[in-house]
From TrEMBL:
Protein name per its UniProtKB record: Phytosulfokine receptor 1
Gene Ontology CC: one annotated term: plasma membrane
Localization terms from the record: Cell membrane
PANTHER family: LEUCINE-RICH REPEAT RECEPTOR PROTEIN KINASE MSP1-LIKE, RECEPTOR-LIKE PROTEIN 14
Alphabetized SUPFAM superfamilies for the sequence: L domain-like
Gene3D superfamilies: Ribonuclease Inhibitor (3.80.10.10)
Transmembrane segments: 404-426
Pfam families the record matches: LRR_1 (PF00560), LRR_8 (PF13855)
This protein's UniProt keywords: Cell membrane, Glycoprotein, Leucine-rich repeat, Membrane, Receptor, Repeat, Transmembrane, Transmembrane helix
InterPro entries reported in the protein's UniProt record: Leu-rich_rpt, LRR_dom_sf, RLP_Defense_Trigger
Length: 434
């Protein structure tokens, strides 16, 4: 049903919430002219029409959540007159256009979400919003399709703590203006088309604990400075920032269930660099990140061995190193990661025994697929091939006992049989992009 036009009689009403109620129709005139209302939450309904808020009458409104409706028209410039507005969420509506120039006057604004509203011109949007000096949370996902990430060195977001701009297919590189956002805790630029190497300053943020640059085209080595992120080493600097004005939504892929967080600090400490073109090693100093919960380096071109020091990441819950060119053995010390619930090293060049014990007893065999010299847990411990010593040309070679040859052949055939039965020799179902 629709909202009744009765708010003129509710002269002391300060907060109105009617989210997720299948409401339809326009915003009642008495609602958008209420002098007493401070907070309005109507997200996840089917309200439509233009957004017309009379900020002259609603001078005290601090929070406005109209996300996930069917509102149409441009982002209303008139909202800039709501000088007390601290939280504004218009995400997932049919708005379009650009961020109004007048938004630069929203000096009290702390949280802004315009995700999935079909707005364009990211350069102008950021130039305007940098004047909102109290802005701490900015969500602009699913907009600006295939535009260029602004590289203007003069952009300044000194108070910003969360910047969320995924699913935009933005081109360019990681912008240097981000390096001046010293308060940054959460950065999500996933699912874009950003490339080039990561600058060393990415590891200099004192408060950063959530970094998602997955599904881009970044290349070169992972900066070793990333392994020194202070908030993932010590976990003493986290600012408990509440996004009380609206929930933060995280979706790993379009069409997948969304994760909703009410606070920045609810996000799991994460470094996600998956689905890029990184080369080089996994730095042993990653083991310093004792407070990291999720490390995802899936589908890159990383090489070398898995450092034994990874076992120092004592809070780790997810470790995905699949679809790389890693070699060597899986360090047995990883069995001591008692919180590890997801582990994947499939489709590398690993060999030797698969560790057993601890959380490794819970991981499916698919976590180890595609490593043809890695011995699955279903088989007996691997009999590693020893490199025979060189025989001096001056010495006579000994004839191998015939019984030994028969036994070796029988053992080989049995091993091949069990490998084919287990699907280890011919892994199925996973294709990696390189």
């Amino acid at each position: 049903g629709s909202l009744p036009d009765v708010f003129g009689r509710l002269r002391k009403l300060e907060s109105f919430s009617a989210s997720s109620n299948r409401l339809t129709g326009l915003l009642p005139a008495s609602l958008v002219n209420s002098a007493s209302l401070l907070r309005i939450d109507l997200h996840n309904n089917s309200l439509d029409g233009p957004i017309r808020i009379n900020c002259s009458a609603m001078a005290q409104v601090t929070s406005l959540d109209l996300a996930s409706n069917n509102f149409q028209g441009p982002v209303p410039a008139s909202l800039s007159s709501c000088q007390s507005l601290r939280g504004l969420d218009l995400a997932r509506n049919k708005l379009g256009g650009v961020v109004p120039f007048e938004f630069r006057n929203l000096h009290a604004l702390e949280s802004l979400s315009l995700g999935n509203t079909s707005i364009n011109n990211i350069s102008t949007a950021l130039e305007i919003l940098q004047h909102c000096k109290n802005l701490t949370i900015l969500v602009l996902s699913l907009n600006f399709y295939q535009e260029e990430m602004p590289s203007n060195v003069n952009l300044q977001f000194t108070s910003l703590k969360a910047l969320i701009i995924p699913f935009c297919h933005l081109r360019g590189s990681l912008p240097i203006w981000l390096s001046s956002s010293k308060m940054l805790q959460l950065l999500d630029l996933s699912w874009n088309s950003l490339g080039g190497s990561l600058p060393s300053w990415i590891g200099k943020f004192e408060y950063l604990f959530y970094l998602d640059l997955s599904n881009n085209s970044f290349s070169g080595e992972i900066p070793e400075s990333l392994t020194g992120l202070e908030n993932l080493v010590l976990r003493t600097a986290l600012l408990k920032e509440s996004s009380e004005h609206f929930s933060l939504v995280k979706s790993k892929e379009q069409g997948r269930p969304r994760l909703v967080y009410d606070n920045i600090c609810d996000f799991p400490p994460t470094v996600d660099l998956s689905h890029n073109k990184f080369t080089g090693p996994i730095w042993p100093s990653f083991g310093n990140l004792k407070n990291l919960h999720v490390l995802n380096l899936e589908e890159n071109n990383l090489s070398g061995s898995i450092p034994d020091s990874i076992s120092g990441m004592t809070s780790l819950e997810v470790l995905d190193l699949s679809c790389n060119n890693l070699s060597g053995e899986i360090p047995y010390s990883l069995v001591h990661l008692s919180f590890l619930s997801v582990f994947n090293v499939s489709y590398n060049r690993l060999y030797g025994d698969t560790p057993s014990g601890g959380q490794f007893m819970t991981f499916p065999e698919s976590s180890f697929d595609g490593n043809q010299a890695l011995c699955p847990r279903l088989l007996a411990p691997c009999q590693r091939k020893q490199i025979p010593p060189l025989v001096s040309p001056g010495k006579k070679m000994k004839i191998v006992d015939g019984n030994f040859g028969i036994g070796a052949a029988t053992g080989f055939l049995l091993t091949v049989f069990f490998c084919f039965k287990s699907g280890w020799v011919l892994p199925k179902g996973r294709v990696c992009r390189y």
